[in-house]
Design a protein that fits this description.
With 155 residues, this protein is of the alpha/beta class. 41% of the residues lie in helices and 23% in strands. The strands form 2 sheets. Strands 5-4-3-7-6 form a 5-stranded mixed β-sheet. Strand 6 (137-140) and strand 7 form a beta hairpin. It is elongated, with a radius of gyration of 22 Å.
């Protein structure tokens, strides 16, 4: 893996593509319309609507540039069957101290969404379990202290 590479699953790439299309085809035209309407109100020096539309335009254009750069430099994670934890795999782990089992998908940092159990390959858990097999027990270093997890299943 390259240190500064942007890794995305097929699904993650499609989500970014949809967001980019939404920004270009819906939000950008809305902002342009708002700018035209605000300009029509007259004096731009004290025009709060114009200032707000310019700020939104900057935000939209910045996000478009960011998404285009991400997509241009993205490395798509290939789906493959494996017996080791790797980028793109879904893994069930058991927290050794309390026997709680969690399922996570290991994704690139731009796609990480912990609330949907998608964790970055740079997260402490992913770093600890990368290249491990079912049954392996690994120590995870975290800001709250070290703990152990056991690989239960790799999908």
């Amino acid at each position: 893996m390259k240190d500064n590479a942007i890794y995305l699953t097929d699904e993650g790439f499609l989500e970014l593509e949809e967001e980019l299309n939404e920004l270009k085809n819906v939000r950008r035209p809305e902002v342009i319309k708002a700018l035209k309407e605000a300009r029509a109100l007259g004096d731009l020096s004290e025009n709060a609507d114009y200032d707000a539309a310019r700020a939104e335009q900057a935000q939209v254009e910045g996000r478009i540039q960011e998404l285009e750069k991400i997509m241009e430099n993205a490395h798509i994670i290939e789906k493959k069957t494996t017996d080791k934890v790797s980028l793109g795999t879904t893994v069930k782990i058991k927290y050794v101290d309390d026997d709680e089992v969690e399922e996570y998908r290991i994704v690139g940092s731009k796609e990480a969404d912990p609330s949907n159990n998608k964790i970055s390959n740079e997260s402490p858990i992913a770093v600890a379990i990368m290249n491990c097999k079912v049954g392996d027990v690994k120590k995870v270093a975290s800001p709250n202290g070290e703990y152990e997890v056991e690989i239960v299943e790799i999908c």
